[in-house]
Fold each of these.
Amino acid sequence: MASVSDHLGETRGHISLPEHRVQPIKQILRRIGYALLMLAATVAIVMLERDGYKDNYDGDMSWLDALYYSTVTLSTTGYGDIVPVSNAARLTNVVLITPLRIVFVALLVGTTFEVLTRRTRDLIRLNRWRSTLSGHTIVVGYGTKGYTAIQTLIAQGSEPEEFVVIDLKRELVAEANRDGYPAIHGDATRSAVLRKANVTNAARVIVAADRDDAAVLVSLTVRQLNPACVLVASIREAENEQLLLNAGVNAVITSAEAAGRLLGVAARSPAISEVFNDLLIHGEGLDLAEREVTAAEVGTLPRDCDQPVIAVLRGGKALPYAQAGKLAAGDRLVLVTSPA
């Protein structure tokens, strides 16, 4: 049964940023190592000025006496049975041993201090992140579709810092953090959650929800908050495509229908299905690219271009190869390319 905190997190959204965490055991061992190094340095300093110290027990300063004095001094215990008596020894205590004592104590209580200041540091990081968040890409759903969409955009030149993931599942939010992406645990159908991702300044929103009804609701909310961003969505059933188009989605991918078409092609010609798979996987074999028509290409037909043209983008619409006619200024060509 979901707790109240889980429900509030889904409603309002909880932001988590990726960070490198050190194992607690490693932190403890590292602190112990630093403490031992400071203890050894203090022993060496005391022995260099051993003639300036007085041992009330036997008057001589041995290595054991120096270790004992360093231990009680750094730990601020100070029994007073060994004391600096010369000016040089006292100056050494003021200039060297006292700073070491301060660092030593700070090191020992560092874990507690780190816990107490962690919330403040997290808030500073969060505010800094949100202040620089603009022109980014929001990915709703970090399943296979969302993850693959991010990897495709990164392969085409996007930076990992440009992405923000929103998901209802905590395990997928944690996975996104491990992969290096900021993530929000929450319900993307709610405007409060989308605002935490700064949707009003987003350049693109990719809706890769598990359910079609969720995809429609997310798309409606996104378009209400940001009428200008590029909004694409994935659904399972083709009958819901018109709902998303009416919601203002720029492009709708029907996963079930597309998979069915690929299965049909593979059943008829497995070799042709491999070509489709090649096109779908960016950076391996064939790729799809988009570019503007050059001045020399204006007035020519798509078949006259140097590279294979499969569609022409004109006036915000994709025209099939056979319907494009002569190329005009402002057209964009969709090409089949191959990595160099």
Note: The chain has a mean pLDDT of 83.
Amino acid sequence: MSHSALRRGLALVAASVLALTLSACTDSSEESDEQGTDSSSGESTDGAFPVTVETKFGAVEITEKPEKVVALGWGDAEVALALGVQPIGASDWLAFGEDANGVGPWASDLYDETPEFFGTTELDTQAIGALEPDLILDVRSEGTQERHDALTEITPNVISIPEGADGWTTTTEEQVTMISQALGLPEDGEELLADVDAAFADAVEAHPEFAGRTATVSAKTSEGWGVYTAVDARQQFMTELGFAEKPEVAALGTESFSVPVAGDQLELLDADVVVSFPIFIEASAITGDDLYNALPAVEDGRSILIDDPVLANAFSAATPLSIQYAIDAIVPLLADATAR
């Protein structure tokens, strides 16, 4: 994704931390080696090591191929799975559930065995440590010193947020690059990113009418409305498709992933295309919102309400596999909206 906005400014946050969010390697056995990952099958070789990954808390040198990976960051397990590595433990940030292996349908069948599940913001270091991981992925997380220190008590091989980054601002490119480096699979990571770029390019070519039209992405929770900014995955997704951020939203000049919007200021959401979804509330809380229904884009049929939780999660997860799932499902809806 060499010129992808998603790779420059993607921001995601955990469900239980912030109001506007949605809230494995195998054992070191012969079976694990068979599942382990040359560049075509997702198999790294011992010759790829040692590798060094730069993080906010310094360089992490991984001397041997990881055999027991725990993925704690938002989407980290999905990235590992896409690279052919199955975490033995993971955090289920979007509450997909144990039956879905804690990941979206675009990745759930990539597990041979259901991983051990851990909390998201609250770390059970004793339970994590019981798995004796030799690599912990915490690449898209709050990235605090306290969290990092707690994890490094389990293993020194903790891949936290990128060097110089703040919590929840890890981009898709950074996440894929850091995880693929740690697993000894950098070329596979590049291929994943190239696939995402190609999917966006195909959509842009098929829909030149998207170019230059303004779009906003917003969510409503029990606490009210919020609009996503250019540093968030969802607005970045729209930008990749050719849409432009609404100037009034861009003018807010914030580095936050979202901005609360009071009911009497809901006109800030209006644009050529308006995309909205509920978080932990019923969709009827949006369809029954008189101020939302009064927006010109809603009145004209130029709005999209993502009321399918799986699609909303794909839109928000912003991993290579979920992005492609979201493109396939959302682009036709956007085409209908822009035709109005």
Note: The chain has two domains: 5-195, 196-338.
